[in-house]
Amino acid sequence: MGRRGTNSGARGLRPTAVAAVGLIALATLTAGCKAETAGATGPTSLPVGASPSSTEGGGRESPTATAPATPPAAPSRTPGTRTPGARPSPEPSTLMSVGDRSERVRELQARLRQTGHFDRSPTGYYGTATLASVQSFQGKRGLPRTGRTDTVTWERLLAMTREPTPEELDPPAPEPAAAKPDARCMTGRVLCISKNSRTLAWMIDGRVVSSMDVRFGSQYTPTREGTFSVYWKSRHHVSTLYDTPMPYAMFFSGGQAVHYSPDFAARGYNGASHGCVNVRDEGKIASLFAQVRDGDKVVVHR
Predict the structure, then answer these.
(1) Structural contact between residues 221 and 200, judged by C-beta atoms closer than 8 angstroms
(2) DSSP-H helix ranges across 12-144
(3) Are 271 and 164 in contact (CB under 8 A)?
């Protein structure tokens, strides 16, 4: 009697009670789906290809979206190595060197003199003195001491100096101090030449008309000393023995003459003649040549 009452009680549930039980079961299942979706580790995780940052029907991005990948850093280059494919820098080209003679060399010497590396008047000839001056300038600036004026040396010198004035390019030669004339020079028209002072004085009756510096022959080809006279003048003379020009030549003893020397003008007393009396000021020797006559006295003394 009691068992029947229990069964009949179950069967006798009202429809509203059955509906309530169904709703509770459905709510439990639904809550379970949401929990698994949020954890997503089991068989009930999100489908393949679904984004964890958005819902099925939404279009809103999650604030934890994946950042774009960082671009790879450029490869480093070891100092002193050349980038593959890069062309090497060209070597500086030589503009002036020993043996050159030009107005550009004269400008080089004037600019070197402005920087204190050239201690004489510009000559326009690139000799040993200019070579040493260029080496000194290059050494002070950390450049290779080649002694040649290349493009790098020239550009550095231009940047440090100004354009030379005409007086700097061709300064007037100072009048050499005339030595006390030899007694043989005090009368008549005389080319009075002193080996001690290395000067030539053009004198008329004891009065000095003009003077100029000169150089003489070496110890192997010395200039003869004594009293002579001019026996031949040759304006455009060329030595038949040495095949060298002897402009404004005034011969006084055999093949020895007073004449202009471009080498003396360029190298100064670093060189010597083959016995002649060299004059380095072309303007002065040209004026002297016009005044001296055949037969005028020549005195070479110490």
Answers:
(1) no
(2) 15-39, 103-114, 128-140
(3) no
Q: What is the pLDDT along the chain (302 residues), one digit of tens a residue?
A: 444 444 444 444 454 444 444 544 444 444 444 444 344 444 444 444 444 444 344 444 444 444 455 555 555 554 444 555 556 667 889 999 999 999 999 999 999 999 999 998 999 999 999 999 999 999 999 999 999 999 999 999 999 999 999 999 988 766 555 556 899 999 999 999 999 999 999 999 999 999 999 999 998 899 999 999 999 999 999 988 888 899 999 999 999 999 999 999 988 888 899 999 999 999 999 999 999 999 999 999 98
Query: What domains can you pick out in the chain, each with its CATH number?
Result: 94-169 (1.10.101.10), 183-301 (2.40.440.10)
Helices and strands of the chain, counted as H and E runs: 8, 11
Whole-angstrom CA distances from 40 to 27, 32, 61, 63, 236 are 20, 12, 19, 19, 114
Please give the torsion angle defined by the CA atoms of residues 173, 174, 179 and 185, in that order, rounded to the nearest 10 degrees: 50
